[in-house]
Amino acid sequence: MTKPVLEPGARAFADATASPPYLFDLETHAAEAAIRQAIAFLSTVLKFR
Hints:
mainly alpha; flat; about 0% strand; 2 helices
């Protein structure tokens, strides 16, 4: 099976979130913090046109 081809920013996000702890395993406050971190990460890595 071939590996999906992702843009560099999407690949970086997929790699960063590929291992535990997963969002659904976290307590609510920790999950909210993780979502804020993910949004900050995406805003710096992905370039929106």
